[in-house]
């Protein structure tokens, strides 16, 4: 049964002009993955936002035969998968509507990470940039976060290698299938990551084209899987800025190291800070403070006692924050249906009790 399910899961990604949003829509309306392929063209056409052209492509697709080829490759190479409805799908990522339908990975399951930090930056960093990156990872070690980056040259590679050096798990997100490694020089680094219980993951199968457009898609995964995203060095444009943009859209905390005004490699970081799209940091201590990762065991014990005495309304808010890590007040209103006038008052009371913490942009997190 699992093999059959996997066949349909993969096939869903191989239907032309059916992206992640329409694929999830089809699964939702059809009542399951297999059912998408069992519906007639006429039935599919009745689904909102599908239309005749896409309905025809779904009904007459060759995706199942292509999926069979992919499964043979996965079995041969020992590659695992996680579908967006599966339990082993990264919990932080699955809440976003544009999250991948299915991902392929080697190494440990990416489902659970107590803390995670995405680190991105230029492919041609300065020595100061590389030193800042390594020092950041070293100082994060006591907090034991998973370090997430994109396996590219420069800051990405420095982040992964620093995590390996200081004994932290690290996740590499690729912009291509697992049949190759780009850049090829990072094959040894990838092997070491897997040896230290890390993960390498991608939304691309081994038949997918390797094109530049893949990398912005990869950046959204880095942002979605991370609790916080740090930009170490970056020009005004590039993949690091795209990662920061996605992180802001996903209501994640974004941090950036400032640099000299004349330094092109610092212009992207300075821009993010100036536009209030990233918090200025000088060390890991700044991240720990803003993320509230530095609290003592005594505070945690007090916090545990506070949760016992919450009202049903307060519990609904806390449950939502547990599920999604952080929410805006609008998201909490939508999820709990608590009137905004009452919600503001309840959140303020929870903040006074030390249960929640308010962040810029009317965001809230649990006071961990």
Structural commentary:
This protein is of the alpha/beta class and 368 residues long. The chain has 3 domains: 2-77, DNA polymerase, domain 1, CATH 1.10.150.20; 116-291, Rossmann fold (3-Layer(aba) Sandwich), CATH 3.40.50; 297-366, Arc Repressor Mutant, subunit A (Orthogonal Bundle), CATH 1.10.10. The protein has 17 helices and 12 strands. The protein has helices at 2-12, 20-30, 33-38, 41-45, 51-59, 63-77, 127-140, 155-165, 187-195, 214-225, 239-249, 267-274, 284-291, 297-308, 312-324, 329-336, 340-353; strands at residues 80-83, 102-107, 116-120, 146-149, 170-173, 199-202, 228-231, 253-256, 279-280, 326-328, 356-359, 363-366. Strands 1-2-6-5-4-3-7-8-9 form a 9-stranded mixed beta sheet, sandwiched between helices. A 3-stranded antiparallel beta sheet has the order 10-12-11. Helix 1 (2-12) packs across helix 6 (63-77) and helix 7 packs parallel to helix 8. The longest helix is centred in the N-terminal third of the chain and has 15 residues, at 63-77. The protein is globular, with a radius of gyration of 22 Å. The two termini are 40 Å apart. The model is unreliable at 301-307 (pLDDT under 50).
